[in-house]
Amino acid sequence: MTKPDISVDVLIIGAGPTGLGAAKRLNQLDGPSWMIIDSNETPGGLASTDTTPEGFLYDVGGHVIFSHFKYFDDCIDEALPNEDDWYTHQRISYVRCKNLWVPYPFQNNISMLPKQEQVDCMDGMIDAALEARVANTKPKNFDEWIVRMMGTGIADLFMRPYNFKVWAVPTTKMQCQWLGERVAAPDLKTVTKNVILQKTAGNWGPNATFRFPAHGGTGAIWIAVAKTLPKEHTEFGSHATVATVDADNKVVALENGKTIGYEKLISTMGIDSLVEKMGDKSLISLSKDLFYSSTHVIGIGVRGQRPERIGDKCWLYFPDMDCPFYRATIFSNYSPNNQPQASTKLPTMQLASGEKPSNSSSQEGPYWSIMLEVSESSMKPVDNANLLADCIKGLIATDMLKATDEIVSTYHRRFDHGYPTPTLEREGALKQLLPKLLEKDIYSRGRFGSWRYEVGNQDHSFMLGVEAADHIVNGAAELTLNYPDFVNGRVNHERRLVDGAQFFKSRKGIRDEGKPLKPATNGVDMVNGSEKMVHGRKKSMGKA
């Protein structure tokens, strides 16, 4: 075999959050040689941001920063360290149901529904509570879980239609082990009190408070993180597109003919794409049991002051069939820099009604914007050619826009791999695919690399890469991949960007590369020490 053009100990494919997490940790540990490649010039993957010609920003779907991991926080804060790099928001979120805005989570706020719907939901919840007392089996699928936890009233009014709009798969075809903190289970006593007293429940969930970049959208975070890595270890651009993965000889060939040899491979591309690049028929066959939906992101830029009815809402859910989108984000509320300045002059493209404007000359703002998400799959096709127009009609139907509103910018982009669906067949496929790849020294990780939606947020994805790197270097356990409920149920503060040995160096005033190291804010990285003892291997303590 011909010698590869380049050889490294660890090759990372993909510069989204997972790949950047792996690179960040390998750079910190300062042990094995490594390289990260991506077919896009701009890092970020599915956490990128696009800008329209008119100057409106839209993320690849609804992304906000909240975290279960201090290491993730450290890396984000290092990349964007200034207070004015961020806006912090309290989540203000509603569900549009029966032409009403019901506070999120819906199942805790049925007190806001019309009386008959309140009765239907309470009936179902009482039946579910009684059934749960005598049930001696676990729910077999997501649909059974919904009925067991919430009853048929909430199931029919919200959970079934909404989740079909999100996943593009019926709830009967989904498993329920992924749920964890993703879906709030209602407290019957609290819901009953709220119905009687006509009260609403408070914020629930890990994203009740979140951060968002002041400039550049979510993509700016990952561009900044990538800039903290040594450039000589990165290769981004179309020339770095992967053509084939020769797992037997441990060589990745790029589209431009360049070859890269590796000892360990961390791949963050979709596991279905990876096995195709490998040309392994048995693994390709296994991957056919994995299902995903595509996501259409639609953006609408509007001239005028943000209406009072929109207010400071963050994101909104739409279970009803009067619109094609399942979620709307008031993207202009996240940062004033997500849309053009008010002094920018733009022509009106159309009125929301579809009519042409009476005046087509460029005029000043102010401006505000809405970002919509629509799912698509073989079980839920969409009319791609008319989707933008259908979404605008849906915004009028749901009172998000008025027919006379001036639309100055539109955006529509389809992402083939949008959601990794937790189908009934998923775990059976992954429990074969991931170990078989690992036998070949391939770590398939990330939102679609490991195909586990329950650890598919930005913080999870980043840590999947970090922990893969730690496993390669130190034999450390990959908790995020293998124990999602554990990491989601706590603040994971063991790893820090400044590790234990570095902390003690800094305390003694020892300088590294002529600069004093900052001490870790919480002291010693105990988990790395314990892993060192458990695995009986010397830990490589690297530079910060």
UniProtKB/TrEMBL annotation:
This protein's name: UDP-galactopyranose mutase
Any Pfam family matching the protein: NAD_binding_8
Higher taxonomy: Eukaryota, Fungi, Dikarya, Ascomycota, Pezizomycotina
Domain of life: Eukaryota
InterPro entries assigned to the protein according to its UniProt record, in alphabetical order: FAD/NAD-bd_sf (IPR036188)
Natural source organism: Stereocaulon virgatum
Composition-biased stretches (Basic residues): 535-544
Stretch list, region Disordered: 339-364, 512-544
